[in-house]
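Hi R.,

Here's the chain you asked about this morning:
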Amino acid sequence: MSRPSRIRPRLPRTRAGRRRLVQAVMAGCVLALLPATWTYVAAGDRLRTTADAPRTEVAVVFGAGLWNGEPSPYLAHRLDAAAKLYHEGRVEVLLVTGDNSREDYDEPDAMRAYLTKRGVPGMRIVSDYAGFDTWDSCVRAKKIFGVDRAVLVTQGFHVRRAIALCEAAGIDSYGVGVDAKHDATWYYGGTREVFAAGKALLSAVFQPDPKFLGREEHGIARALAASPAP
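And here is the predicted structure, written out as tokens:
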């Protein structure tokens, strides 16, 4: 029994056809990179460190996974940076936003416990249990928690997208890109950002509601009114 022949793509035979093919490939590459370029332009000069982050009321700390119920190393680095911002008086309240879509997985509570062990008062930590992705976290910070200006704490490969999305959601944002070891996870995260930027651009353009919106919460206002920050 003869094997079915494979259909191989044929290159254009004429010079004009090959030129059009090259132009199409180049156009495809440009279109693929446009969203990533948008995040770089949108973030502009809003990247900071823990040493020069602007003084503001709120820092938003994005979830980055749990290992056996504890913050992953990448999330721990974010939380360490957020705790430093608080202890140095650059921010007054930490909004920890992450995934709590099932009973056995609770990023915000794990983040809270980690921060309190490092001297951040519980009254200065506000939890968002429905930060399922960056866009949801930004929109909920604005619409649910009333955040108008914030420092965003995340890894360097994610910080520009976070700034771009929170700016699109109406938050005057600055980003602290936390240093991380350039391991397999870091390279995966950097590669993923190229593709995630496309979804981010669509979210910024079409402004979808997050998966869960709900009613306004006043945890940040209560935290700010509770007592003076250090």
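One quick note: The chain has seven helices and eight strands.

Cheers,
M.
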